[in-house]
UniProtKB/TrEMBL annotation:
Role: Also exhibits azoreductase activity. Catalyzes the reductive cleavage of the azo bond in aromatic azo compounds to the corresponding amines.
Keywords: Flavoprotein, FMN, NAD, Oxidoreductase
Enzyme class, broadest EC rank: oxidoreductase
SUPFAM superfamilies according to UniProt: Flavoproteins
InterPro entries (alphabetical): Flavodoxin_fold (IPR003680), Flavoprotein-like_sf (IPR029039), FMN-dep_NADH:Q_OxRdtase_AzoR1 (IPR050104), NADH:quinone_OxRdtase_FMN_depd (IPR023048)
Organism field: Rugamonas brunnea
Reaction(s) the record says it catalyses: N,N-dimethyl-1,4-phenylenediamine + anthranilate + 2 NAD(+) = 2-(4-dimethylaminophenyl)diazenylbenzoate + 2 NADH + 2 H(+); 2 a quinone + NADH + H(+) = 2 a 1,4-benzosemiquinone + NAD(+)
Domain of life where this protein originates: Bacteria
Name of protein: FMN dependent NADH:quinone oxidoreductase
Cofactor stoichiometry and binding remark: Binds 1 FMN per subunit.
Length: 199
């Protein structure tokens, strides 16, 4: 089983979403044989944002790209290859200002490529990254689950489904900014959720 872990917190240490992603991967690794884990920390290894130069490189035919354009596209190619090779994807996703982090958005932009990870058809787009299990560890400072303020979850669900990733399980740690007691409660609940989804 090939596991791809994506940590998208801007924090190199002390990230709750990363702690939960680590816990998910550890439990997955303990319950399966022949496990290979690839970890990508988007804070330690930030992916460049999708800017005009990147768009020009992507829309230039491969045989016509200059060296700089080829190198830029190769960065995205490497991330796509990791996703394609994964059987299980574990994403640590903190909520920043009601949404996903810029680090995760850059990763999303890199792996969404027409004709490779999705395709357009007469009846609409079809995701090509099928047959994979996804776990998302969501961490929030406040309490947003099931509330109108939770714009993070719809974004994650919509994007993953767009690529064909429809078998998705979420684990939550909420109230991380509400004091020590709330943190302890959130961590205990999140750990219980991990145990429940990985029975």
């Amino acid at each position: 089983m090939n596991i791809l872990q994506i940590n998208s917190s801007a924090r190199s240490t002390g990230s709750e979403s990363t702690r939960l992603a680590d816990a998910l991967v550890a439990k997955l690794s303990a319950t399966a044989a022949n496990v290979s884990v690839t970890r990508r920390d988007l804070a330690a290894q930030p992916h460049p944002v999708l800017d005009e130069a990147a768009l020009q490189a992507l829309f230039t035919p491969a045989e016509q790209r200059n060296a700089e354009q080829a190198a830029r596209v190769a960065l995205d190619d490497a991330l796509i290859a990791q996703v394609q090779a994964a059987d299980v994807i574990v994403i640590g996703s903190p909520m920043y200002n009601f949404g996903i982090t810029v680090q995760l958005k850059s990763w999303f932009d890199a792996i969404a490529r027409a004709g490779v990870t999705f395709k357009y058809t007469a009846t609409g787009p079809v995701g090509l990254l099928t047959g994979k299990k996804v776990y998302v560890a969501v961490a929030r400072g406040g309490m947003h689950r099931g509330a109108p303020s939770d714009t993070q979850l719809p974004h994650l669900k919509t994007f993953l489904a767009f690529l064909g990733l429809t078998d998705v399980q979420f684990v939550y740690a909420e109230g991380m900014g509400l004091g020590p007691d709330a943190v302890a409660k959130a961590q205990a609940q999140a750990d219980a959720e991990i145990n429940a989804v990985l029975v």
